[in-house]
Write the structure tokens for this entry.
Amino acid sequence: MASSITVTCPECETTLKAPSDVLGKKIRCKACGHTFAARDPERSSSSGKSGPPPRKDSPAKKGGKAAPPAKGAAKKAGGGKKAAAAANDEDDANPYGVTEEYLGRRCPDCAEAMDDDQVVCLNCGYNTMTREKARIRKVKDTTGGDIFLWLLPGILCVILILAMVGFDIWYILSIERVSFGDAWYDFIGSSGAKIWVSLVLAFICFFAGKYAVIRLCINNTPPEVEEKMETD
């Protein structure tokens, strides 16, 4: 994998990030569109530029006259110049594109750019505060029938309480011990039996009323039902 280098546009002085294999090639600045040759600032800022090494004189030149180049060599040199010119034209027509270097805050999960005050990554849903990633769920729609079935137990508890209160009032006012005669179950009409029956009914009404308040007032919305997501 090619390493990255940092180059500076000579036109607008924008810092750009590019692969190292574009050194010496034409690139286009993303900010201003200027085309220039990519150079490594570390190498260019080092020691001064040194010229090309001196050429050694050929043996023919030492004798006084330089030998004329061969026809094949002249043709090859001419072809090489044309190929170099064509390569330069191609580089100028289609310069390498580079991206502007981003030095800001990134998501720890997907490396997407984030604002300084942003908590949740908009790309992957990662929460930088809780260190948790949002999970995509498919939830079933809640219908009126689902709500009625959820509230039905609380409604039945209210009906049960009203029925037990009505029964207790009828039992206390209508049932008397003398109405049973000498039967063995005449204790049902006694005052002690009425007190115990009232206490039992009050105990049942308390728990039924507590359940009805929770289901009808506090938690009156059915829970979400998560469905299985189809994967391609």
Observations:
- The chain has three domains: 1-39+73-102, 104-135, 139-227.
- Helices lie at 41-44, 59-62, 71-93, 144-174, 191-218.
